């Protein structure tokens, strides 16, 4: 069978391109192009679930005569966005040397509200007061981004009712609990005209008429009438819409996302270079195995493809100089992403 | 043991409460099968005990997050990553396949409830699968650097455009 090597088109050889179409304090909309969907999706996933932020994790309730149950209030408190600027200085509580929690791995906030007037009282995120020693004055303070600067509504109190509680906010990631999510939402979209047919649109009589066009539809060439399906096409332009919940600025979310991805890679490189020395092939082991061809003792290289004989006879398996890759960023063995 | 006990009791209860014909199929006594299942339970428990021992042993060792699966040859190897997901797997697969010395690369998450991610790499002679993996990781880091720089540039330019 003819094996088509990944043809790097000229566009991709130029390296990734970022184009911003909107950026303010709440959202950044940008287009990432000339990369693979795998990388774009990694970036989306890491921004969604793996950027560390801070959120209330423990609540000690001293008094609660409101109509809401303790655990109900605790849950609401957990979801309140707290400012995560400078989260790098804060340790994860499980990695801290202290017993339980301390100022190096947590921020303590108190809430004490009693309705003394005649009318119902509203308790807002603003009423959460950070107490005790803190690493810096920003991290862990409630986000107050509304016009009045009140923050999220936590609960309402009838005359005479009171809540008094202490919250411990800790560092975490959204993979563990969604309350640590830095983004309110991340929009991710590609191929607005569905040329690749990754979508199977439902319709009454005509999908094109019934589905509203994407806001990016004008960015890309619409398909020609009667255009044949290009089965070699791959998605190349990805439209992100990163919406902040207030705990991190939207452009910080993107930078942090890339940073987290790089830390993940750095950790693995470190481990890989370290474990190479003590030999990774464990002796007795009956878990999943790498497929074995024969016994391996017959000197067989381990693969049975048409390119098996070292690849030198193949059209593109050689040193790389004579291949289509010779002129690519990868040809010289140094990374050419720049 | 508790599981085995309840199983034995259930048919008896059902008999005393209602006529057997009316009981749901799952509560119908099936003497032979029940015995078999009790036997299996005993086996399961023995198995579980072994597993627990194995787990304890594993915990004593340092957790190694990347492992070369046995049966690998230098140019064709499978790696098992612990606590990694599609986030890393798919991007790594993509970047390793970009390496012209790599003949084949694929990744899989064998089971969604196990925090494991497997990567298979087969290279041409002249390089090894481990080298290809390491190069892949470094290339992906470089790609991240570039995207990060490009974003910061674009953001700075966009800011200028707004203020101007």
TrEMBL record, chain A:
GO biological process terms on file: transcription by RNA polymerase II
Pfam families xrefs: RNA_pol_A_bac, RNA_pol_L
Domain DNA-directed RNA polymerase RpoA/D/Rpb3-type: 27-271
Primary subcellular site in the record, as a coarse category: nucleus
CDD domains: RNAP_II_RPB3
Entry keywords, A to Z: DNA-directed RNA polymerase, Nucleus, Transcription
The UniProt record lists the keyword Nucleus: yes
Subcellular location: Nucleus
Domain of life of the native organism: Eukaryota
A GO CC term attached to the entry: RNA polymerase II, core complex
Keyword field contains Glycoprotein: no
Chain positions covered by the region annotation Disordered: 314-338
Gene3D superfamilies: DNA-directed RNA polymerase, insert domain, RNA polymerase, RBP11-like subunit
GO molecular function, one term: DNA binding
Similarity annotation: Belongs to the archaeal Rpo3/eukaryotic RPB3 RNA polymerase subunit family.
Subunit structure comment from the entry: Component of the RNA polymerase II (Pol II) complex consisting of 12 subunits.
Family annotation (HAMAP family): RNApol_arch_Rpo3 (MF_00320)
UniProt protein name: DNA-directed RNA polymerase II subunit RPB3
Organism of origin: Staphylotrichum tortipilum
Automatic annotation (TrEMBL), chain B:
Keywords attached to this entry: DNA-directed RNA polymerase, Nucleus, Transcription
Main location: nucleus
Entry protein name: DNA-directed RNA polymerase RBP11-like dimerisation domain-containing protein
GO molecular function, one term: DNA-directed RNA polymerase activity
GO cellular component terms, A-Z: nuclear DNA-directed RNA polymerase complex; RNA polymerase I complex; RNA polymerase III complex
Example GO biological process: transcription by RNA polymerase III
Homology family: Belongs to the archaeal Rpo11/eukaryotic RPB11/RPC19 RNA polymerase subunit family.
Compositionally biased spans, kind Acidic residues: 31-62
Database matches in PROSITE patterns: RNA_POL_L_13KD
CDD domains in the record: RNAP_I_III_AC19 (cd07029)
All residue ranges annotated as the DNA-directed RNA polymerase RBP11-like dimerisation domain in the record: 77-149
Protein species of origin: Staphylotrichum tortipilum
Renumbered residue ranges of the record's region Disordered: 1-68
Subcellular location: Nucleus
């Amino acid at each position: 069978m003819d094996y088509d090597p990944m043809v790097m088109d000229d566009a991709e050889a130029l390296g990734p391109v970022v184009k911003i179409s909107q950026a303010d304090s709440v959202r950044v909309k940008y287009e990432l192009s000339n990369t693979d969907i795998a990388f774009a999706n990694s970036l989306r996933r890491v921004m969604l679930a793996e950027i560390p932020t801070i959120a209330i994790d423990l609540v000690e309730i001293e008094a609660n005569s409101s109509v809401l149950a303790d655990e109900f209030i605790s849950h609401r408190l957990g979801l309140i966005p707290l400012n995560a600027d400078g989260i790098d200085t804060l340790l994860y509580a499980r990695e801290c040397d202290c017993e339980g929690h301390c100022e190096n791995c947590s921020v303590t906030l108190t809430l004490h509200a009693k309705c003394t007037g005649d009318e119902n009282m509203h308790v807002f995120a603003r009423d959460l007061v950070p107490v005790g020693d803190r690493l810096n004055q920003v991290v862990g303070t409630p986000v107050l981004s509304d016009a009045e600067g009140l923050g999220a509504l936590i609960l309402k109190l009838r005359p005479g009712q009171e809540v008094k509680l202490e919250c411990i906010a800790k560092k975490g990631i959204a993979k563990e609990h969604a309350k640590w999510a830095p983004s309110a939402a991340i929009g991710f979209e590609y191929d607005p005209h569905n040329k690749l047919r990754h979508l199977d649109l439902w319709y009454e009589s005509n999908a094109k008429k019934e589905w509203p066009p994407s806001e990016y539809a004008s960015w890309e060439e619409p398909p020609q009438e009667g255009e044949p399906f290009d089965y070699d096409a791959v998605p190349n332009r990805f439209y992100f819409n990163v919406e902040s919940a207030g705990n991190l600025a939207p452009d910080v979310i993107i930078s942090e996302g890339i940073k987290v991805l790089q830390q993940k890679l750095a950790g693995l490189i470190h481990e890989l270079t370290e474990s190479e020395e003590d030999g990774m092939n464990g002796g007795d082991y009956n878990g999943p195995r790498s497929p074995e061809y024969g016994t391996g003792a017959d000197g067989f290289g381990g693969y049975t493809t048409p390119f098996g004989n070292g690849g030198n006879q193949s059209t593109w398996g050689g040193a790389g100089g004579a291949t289509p890759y010779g002129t690519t960023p990868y040809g010289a063995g140094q990374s050419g992403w720049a | 043991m508790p599981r085995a006990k309840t199983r034995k009791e259930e048919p008896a209860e059902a008999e005393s409460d209602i006529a057997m014909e009316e009981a749901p199929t799952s509560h119908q006594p099936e003497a032979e099968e029940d015995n078999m299942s009790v036997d299996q339970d005993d086996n399961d428990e023995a198995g579980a005990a072994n597993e627990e021992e194995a787990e304890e042993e594993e915990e004593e060792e340092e957790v190694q997050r990347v492992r070369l699966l046995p049966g690998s040859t230098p140019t064709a190897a499978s790696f098992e990553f612990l606590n990694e997901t599609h986030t890393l797997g798919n991007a790594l697969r993509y970047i390793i396949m970009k390496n012209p010395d790599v003949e084949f690369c694929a990744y899989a998450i064998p089971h969604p409830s196990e925090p494991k991610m497997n990567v298979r790499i087969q290279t041409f002679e002249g390089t090894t699968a481990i080298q290809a993996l390491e190069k892949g990781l470094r290339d992906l880091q470089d790609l991240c650097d570039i995207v990060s720089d490009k974003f910061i540039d674009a953001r700075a330019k966009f800011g200028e455009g707004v203020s101007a």
